[in-house]
Amino acid sequence: MSRIIASAAIRGAHKVIQQAEDMLERAITERDEGFTFEFPDTAYYLPMIYGMTGFAVKTLGDMRVALGMAKELLHPEPEEHLWKPYLGEALDSGMATLFAEEVIMALRYINGLEPAVDPETGYIYNGFITDTVQRNLGIQLVDGTMPGFAAVIGAAPDGDTAVRIIRELQEKNILIFLSGHVNGNSVTKQLLRKGIELGWDTRIVPVGPDTEHTIYPLNWSVRASFIFGGRKGGDFKGHLKYTKDRVFAFALVLGELDDLKWSTGAGAINMGYPAVCDTDVPVIHPTGVCTYEEVDKEFDHSKIVQKAIEVRGLKIIVEKPPIPVAYGPAFEGERIRKEDMFIEFGGTRTLSFEWVRMREMEEIEDGKVIIVGNNWQERYEQGGQMPLGIVVDVAGRKMQKDFESVIERKIHSNINEAQGVWHMGQRDINWMRISHNAKKEGFTLEHLGIINAVMTHNRFRAIVDKVQVTIYTDEADVLSLQEEARKVYRERDQRTAGLVDEAVDIFYSCLLCQSFAPTHVCVISPERLGLCGAFNWLDCKAAYEIDPTGGNQPIPKGELIDARYGRYTGIDEYLRKASGGAVETLNLYTIMQNPMTSCGCFECIIAIVPEANGVMIVQRGHTGMTPVGMKFSTLAGSVGGGTQNPGFMGIGRNFIVSKKFLYGDGGIKRIVWMTKNLKESLEEAFGKRAAEEGVPDLLDKVADETICEDSERLLEFLTSVGHPALEMEPLL
Ligand code: SF4
Ligand code: ZN
Hints:
Shape: globular
Number of helices: 23
Bound molecules: iron/sulfur cluster, zinc ion
Number of strands: 23
Distance between the termini: 59 Å
Radius of gyration: 27 Å
Strand order of the largest sheet: 3-2-1-4-5-6
């Protein structure tokens, strides 16, 4: 590392620590040392400090201790040091800088200054990034749909350049965090002025206006190591190795660098994140921390994203259909409001449905899009509303009837990923909108067909040899075909209902999360879906056909050793190998003994409530307290990392209404508390299952957060309604 940069980094660290100390002393005078603080929705205190030192900062007094640790990392100012700063010192001061920045952000929260607000526009920055976001995005990071994230710091030379850089990152599906400024100007402001939609939905997340705010994506990324990697506080080597090897992040630094940017950058380099700058910085070659350039430069803004991708070695797979608008998962979350809408289909406004049909090879023509309807062009040009039936015909030597629903579910992403096109729902309750802008760019009904033809081909290459799409626009056609489709939907549902664990010889594993949680294996059976909710047994079966060496492998069940707890010889054998010896044996149908391991991206957590002789369930995103005395974030912290934790387990939402849910422990009747969100979203299926168990009004007897958030009142409630769990055999 160049001497000049190291000096700048060390100078920056001194300044920012001083700043943090001044702020802290003021805060302590105003409040007192015992004043407590926590960032929103995290189980990891001040995550960077906790990760590196194991010290849990809970009060202002603790912050003083933490700053003391930062100072210990610091080396004398370069002037006093006879100009001999070297790499290690700059890196240490980089980490010290991150500690100080984390304290500064905590203090800004205490002072009501976070999340920051842009004075010009009133735009509210994201501020601290929660654990929940880490868990929500987990699956996309592990399956490669999101190849990494970029911290974009500073300002582009002009607004158009800012937009071009951001669009390029978006199209490559890279998550974008924005922070810092150059003389008051910033990429955030440049995008706001251009009317670009910011936020999680478009994966452009401005975290704050200053360089200090860069700590947010950094202390967010270290939580991947806690949550998925199972690393503990204080294991700094482990955390830094994890972020370097598994978190694909980099920085784009636009505009001039000052001391603080250098010292923050040194902190990021510590974590294995390189920076590419658009100014004439000295290039820093591999020094041991990274095997790639740690700081590099690219003056051409049309090449800077590509440069960063190469430097960090990201794998980008972008498959874009030939359509006149941008395309990629980054556009999936974008909404189209009524004012921006050119035309819509379905959503109970018009007849509409979508249907994937298996055909014989000779029946269809690959890549063909047919639009059926009387003068559909003119009707489309008028905008407004229109009936619409989308029939995707597929044929392939390895195609099976069972895969129809798997392919059909992807229509949602196929369509939604087009910029300016929006899709919701499925089957005959779908709803689509095309925006004025997309229309202006030349988007027509034909493109809806092209998208589905091309993307179905891309996604299901190994099982689909031919795809043909027909779009119906006349009410009479849509009506009659919808009837036909409905019959098929019903048949499929019946078939799925009959698909029980006993009826198959093969279960599937999902190993996708091993890139994050190396010992975790999801065992997916017909009646138990993966804990992230994204894979059921049929999905895995299709995925295995598509890629026989991929993340979903067949597990021959072998012999049933224990019918009540769901233990099979084949699963145990498989797991011993696939978990690298970490898991010896597994019971599919209980939470009490050798339950399934959890990675980190579970939709819900079940935990036993011993006092109530039952279990409670909370979904991610729920921020309130639960009757076991822990919030979701805290619970999640103790469940993940690929270990078995009797009494606690991560599960997919739909598992709750499966017949195999805690079958060995007494099933659905064990549920004594569940969030209102879960109760409402599962109401119908839950009612059905409860009736089968002989307690049709069970849901009314299950408490939720509006009834209580502690075990004492929970017991009172359960007693008053006569909850069946109180009469069941003891759980423990
Ligand atoms: Fe990860 Fe399990 Fe989901 Fe696969 S099914 S992505 S292993 S949580
Ligand atoms: Zn996972």
